[in-house]
Amino acid sequence: MKGNALVAQTGGPTAVINASLAGIVSQCHREPNVPRVFGCRWGMLGLMEENFVDMTEMNETKIDRLKWTPSSALGSSRYKLSAKDMPRVLDVMKKHDIRYFFGIGGNDTMLNVYQIEKYCREQGYEFFGMGCPKTVDNDLFGTDHTPGFPSAARFVALSVLQAGTLARDMQKVDQFVVYQTIGRDAGWLAAAAVAGKKNDADPPHIVLLPEVPFEDEKFLAAVETAHKKYGFVSIICGEGIVYADGTPVSASKVKDNFSNIEFGAMGGTSAAMHLHRMIAGKFGFRGEFQVPESLPMCAMDRAVKLDVEEAFILGYEAVERATSGASGLMTTLVRGDGAAYGISIGTIPLNEVAAKTKPLPKEFIAEGGLMVTDAFKRYITPLIGEIPDYFHF
User: Fold this and answer.
1) Which residues are catalytic?
2) Is the pLDDT of residue 337 over 60?
3) In this structure, are residues 110 and 354 in contact, taking their beta carbons and an 8 Å threshold?
């Protein structure tokens, strides 16, 4: 099918989301049936407003710079498409002869691409919609991991290791440190903090995951035990940790356009702050909490080369498959069964991905729920590369 291509980046960025965009643009340039390729400014909002960037004439030098640029180069938004928007979307597609649409994003993005692809086809408009995965949360179904996660995981692992090293050496002044990661429903990033942990005394000592209901007394007992053993306590928590009844530890009640609870600064509060108060109130310890918010989503200085290359591959594979007649799919990373790390590219139907989350599997959560297993360490190690082995007396 001959026609133009349109790309949108939606939701939160990652350090490597532009690598997927670069892969899409690069491959579109190689496709004789795709005369022009456009990008939506500000995600789905740009689609509704016909706010497009023409990327047809981008040369390889610019595409390579784009590949190594953090955040979302096209700009993003959290505009939620609804059924009433679909006629407008179809009109825009027809007006610009858009026959190929690529959405780079997470759960909500895949839902939007699915809705657009389904509506256009129902209206008899020949159209090919493909999703390209992105999220630092690593919570998309159907893929071994999502581009952006390895780089964010490395950011977290290094931050927790370095902050924990500081806490160890300053334990006569500050007795604990709490580090909070993003990740609304899944604990993949919080779990990644253990990548630099080589023995029990190394940080972190306690890992709090959204998949494990939080218990005050159990947590405080673990804090006391760690403090007695090591002289300080390093705690990592996912922003979305909740009590057994579903109440957020952060006490946040603010919701976004997709009815998701806003955590951290966006919600005006944080789980880390509440944990800090809990520890200080119980033991009288002095300590700090760290909430980097979106920094792991845009830190190109800590990006993993493997992550950049996989993001790029998923982009150009999405174009290759769409121009070969595939539609309504998301490209995925499939890990091989061998001892050495290796991936192949697969696909999964968008309706199996849309608006769902992939929690940390039970086999990755240690007994007691406050640490992860060796199986998780084997999973994460090839994704984030070597972690420094710091000296200490």
Assistant:
1) 137
2) yes
3) yes
